[in-house]
Structure formats: structure tokens, C-alpha cells
Amino acid sequence: MPYAVPNPLPGYRELNPAELQLLATIKAAERDVADVWRDVADADDTEDGLGNDVYVDARWLAVARTHLQEGFSALVRSVTRPDDPFEPRVAHDGGDDA
Predict the structure, then answer these.
(1) Mean of pLDDT values over 67-91
(2) Would you state the torsion angle of the CA atoms of residues 7, 11, 17, 18, taken in this order, to the nearest 10 degrees?
(3) Radius of gyration, CA atoms only, the chain
(4) Taking the domains of the chain in order of start, what are their residue ranges?
(5) For the residues of 31-98, what is the DSSP string, one character each?
(6) Do the beta carbons of residue 7 and residue 14 sit within 8 Å?
(7) Do the strands 53-54 and 46-47 form a parallel or antiparallel pair, or are they unpaired?
(8) Do the beta carbons of residue 44 and residue 59 sit within 8 Å?
(9) Confidence band (pLDDT; 50, 70, 90) for 6?
(10) What single-letter DSSP state applies at residue 14?
(11) pLDDT in tens, 20-43
(12) pTM summary value
């Protein structure tokens, strides 16, 4: 069973066991989808056994790869919820916080 490990990287929080399990599930699904993508890529310029040629548009294959990578990255971020370095900085008024 996965366990929470403190993360020394700035902007990332410690994940609990349920979150780590979700990440493992996401990464397994990502590998499965990548296998399908590779199957499509490998099918390019082949014959299907019935005399039908298979041609894959390389541009759309590349677009699919990029979108799949972006989608899985977004899915991981939805669980990990790292700090957003692009959020506006909070102005410090110079006063005492005490």
C-alpha cells in the first residue's frame, strides 16, 4: 500500500494514501492509452491482412499525443493541486503580522 511521503519540492504538498492511489490509477491508465497510441502509430503504412492499406496522418497523430499528454498532466494536477506560481502575489503592507 502506498504511503504519504513529505515532498521537499517547493509548491507541492504532502499527498495522503488515497491521493497516491489515485495517482497510481491515473499513471496506469496513461500507460494503457499510450499503448493504444503506439498501436495506431505502428499501424501506419501497413496492410490489415485483408489487402487494405492503413495510413495514419502523422500530424493528427502528433496532435493526439500532445493532447493526451496535456490531459493526463491536467488529471495529475487535479489530484496533486500544486501551488500556482502564476497567481498574483499578495501585496505585503509592511505591518506587523503579530
Answers:
(1) 92
(2) -170
(3) 21
(4) 17-80
(5) HHHHHHHHHHHHHTTEE-SSS-EE---HHHHHHHHHHHHHHHHHHHHHHH----TTSPPPPP-SS---
(6) yes
(7) antiparallel
(8) no
(9) low
(10) P
(11) 999 999 999 999 999 999 999 998
(12) 0.74
